[in-house]
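Dear colleagues,

I hope this message finds you well. In preparation for our joint manuscript, I am sending the DUF3149 domain-containing protein (Alteromonas portus) sequence together with its predicted structure, so that both groups work from identical material. I would be grateful if you could confirm receipt.
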Amino acid sequence: MLWTMMKDPVVWGSLLGIGIIVAMMMYYTYLFMHNSANEDK
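The corresponding structure tokens are as follows:
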């Protein structure tokens, strides 16, 4: 079952999409915190 899921390209596409969304959220959170810190100085 697990090996069949790992060979399915749809699973990899979904994981890639989720990974991109999470990476963008982390990146924009970092930018927001970084810009907020600069304004306080």
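For the figure legend, we might mention the following. The helical segments are 2-6, 9-40. DSSP finds two helices and no strands in the chain.

With kind regards,
E.M.
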